[in-house]
Amino acid sequence: MRPRTWVLLLAALFALMQLATVEGRDTPDSKNYVSYALSLTGADEREAAAATIDHYCAGRAAMAHRAQLVDVVRFHAPDPAPRVLEECREQEWRQVEARLAAGDTGGRTVPFMPERFMRIFEVRPGYPLVLAPFVALLGVTWGVWTAGVLITCAGGVLAYLVLRTLAAPVPLALTGMALYLVLPCGTTAMRPMTEGLMLALTLAALWGCSLVLGGTRPRAGLALVGGALFALFTVKHSQALFLGACLAAAGVAVAVRRRWRGTPAGRGPVALAAVGCAGVLGTVLVSRLLDYPSVSESVQDLLTDHFARPDRERPWAEFFQLQGNFWMEWARRQLWEPLFLAALAAGALGARRRPAFGVFLAAAACTGILNQAGHPDINIWGDRLITLAWLLPVLGVPLLLEPVLRRAVVPAQGAPMEPVG
């Protein structure tokens, strides 16, 4: 079969597997994105609240039903789903009605939480804009599911394109796509949250980096990186800041290393560093002009349990103390189950086969570490904040397997390409 057929087959297989869990993927924050998307379709505040609450509570009920079926003590008890559904609806409506009655009706999101907390989601229109047409055409449940499948498969296809641009044989590029879908990248991208788009846009930026470093289409590559940073700003502006800074640092590191070795730095790394710096500067300036929530506001949100408690008087001292506690516990858990660390090590070894691109890949993976450091909450849903770090093994492991494949004399399909250094 042609490579594109294999890509479509992998995507179709992944979509079929996701039919096993259509409901129950939501996190509490998903309500904010879904209600934002519904408001973009023209629904008023109460219509958006009703549809969002019904969807969220149906997911909670489905999870309770599945859990009860395998409960060794209560598996023969009555189905808890109707009770959970009713209690969830009552609780959510009680909170929303109270805030609507208090006049909290501004913005695109339904006021599920205090206004200061909802402001964080008001400045993230990117994901709701993508979600809105699916919700309008297919309804909330199937619209959210379909959008998740397409966003996740798009990330897998981008992983494939990056590896092909790096001259990886088709079987290894397909391996990268499969790894993206089966590792936590795919699981996290399927949640109704921003992480799926963040992963896909970061891969788009890495594709642009590979085009620039390979010298095949440098202008298109730079445009792709710039476009990815702009789109990331609309999805989550802190991620655009992190990626821009990390790409700028990677470009400088590659240029300095080449000069240190007595070779020309080349235009590619310098141009990518300039685009990264422009992304950082643009993110900072535009977010201030638009009065986006500050870093201090984010720290207060973390330490006050989403503004449910009074603001902390010494937030930064407490934040850095929490950082130390968090990373010690995180390291302990990783050493207990070192799959993630082993995957990062394998990805780093593979990235060394494309030294220049490997630096940019490691920089993009570091945005996951920075994202987690901004929210040192050990109980956050499924380690989703650090998921971007999984891009290192997704792209690095196939490159690590390249010598094995070539020794096995498996012919590379498609036109030969020069490796990106």
Give the structure's gist in a few sentences:
With 421 residues, the chain is mostly helical. The protein is built from 18 helices and no strands.
Could you tell me the number of beta strands?
Answer: 0
Strand content: under 5%
**Helical amount:** over 70%
Task: Give a short account of the largest sheet.
Answer: none
Order of helices and strands: HHHHHHHHHHHHHHHHHH
Shape, per Cα inertia axes: globular
Radius of gyration, whole Å: 23 Å
Helix-and-strand structural type: mainly alpha
Can you walk me through this structure?
- This protein is mainly α.
- It contains 18 helices and no strands.
- Helix 7 (170-182) runs antiparallel to helix 17 (391-400).
- The longest helix is centred in the middle third of the chain and has 40 residues, at 126-165.
- It is globular.
- The model is unreliable at 412-418 (pLDDT under 50).
Element layout with pairings:
Blueprint lengths: L2 H16 L11 H11 L4 H25 L11 H21 L13 H8 L3 H40 L4 H13 L1 H6 L5 H20 L3 H18 L1 H24 L6 H23 L5 H9 L11 H22 L2 H13 L3 H19 L17 H10 L1 H6 L14
